[in-house]
Amino acid sequence: MADPETGSPPAPGTSKLPLILAGVNTLLIVGVLAFVMLRGGHPAKAADGEHGKEPAGEQAGKEGEHGKEGAGPGPSVKLPDFTIHLRNPEADRYARISFEVEVGMELDKEKVNARLPQIRDAFIAYLSDRSLEELRGSEGLNRVKTALVDILKQVGAPVRALYITDFVVQ
Fold first, then answer.
1. Residue 102 pLDDT > 90, yes or no?
2. 149-164 pLDDT, tens digit each
3. Where are the transmembrane segments (predicted)?
4. Are 135 and 86 spatial neighbours (Cβ–Cβ below 8 Å)?
5. How far is CA 33 from the centre of its chain?
6. In the prediction, which pLDDT does 121 show?
7. Dihedral sign, CA of 142, 144, 148, 150?
8. Which of 69, 84, 107, 150 is deepest in the core (most CB within 10 A)?
9. According to the CATH classification, is domain 76-169 in 3.30.479?
């Protein structure tokens, strides 16, 4: 195309495209830097979309350390394994069960450990009265867990949840 002012064709290599691309790239870089700077310079904060707040995972972890209820999983105490002779008139059946007790804060772990003899005694008494049929299936295990949480509360152990971590019947 001819130049409208001079009427002569443009000189080779004087295209405006490189100049336009350089300007667009500069605007993109400035936009990204402005976005990051306005979000506090932390990639997780930028992704979270809220300035001045920690990501949810970090926040939940800190609340759990300070004992706020419902903030996520709290500290837990692994109880020693239980080997129980089940109530069964036809054959000798044994169950080996492992538990973890979730508590609200670190100080509660000491309370559970201090009551460990009472907890073991109450768990063994309750479990040895169960038959294989009562322990069978998820419904049976959920009933047992509910009863054992009640036992933990009666013994005075601060409990948020009880988890069965191993269960074998022979």
1. yes
2. 999 999 999 999 999 9
3. 20-38
4. yes
5. 33
6. 96
7. positive
8. 84
9. yes
Q: How many residues in the chain?
A: 170
- DSSP assignment, residue 13? T
2, 9 Cβ separation under 8 angstroms: yes
DSSP 48-67: HT-TT---HHHHHHHHHHTT
Cα–Cα distance for residue pair 52/61, rounded to 1 Å: 17
**CA angle, 113 as apex, 112 and 117 as ends, to 5°?**
95
Question: Who's near 61: CB < 8 A, 6+ residues apart?
Answer: 72
Give pTM, 2 decimals: 0.58
Question: What is the CA 62 to chain-centroid distance, rounded?
Answer: 12
- 8-state DSSP, 80: P
Q: Average pLDDT of 114-127?
A: 96
* Cα–Cα dist 108/77, whole Å: 9
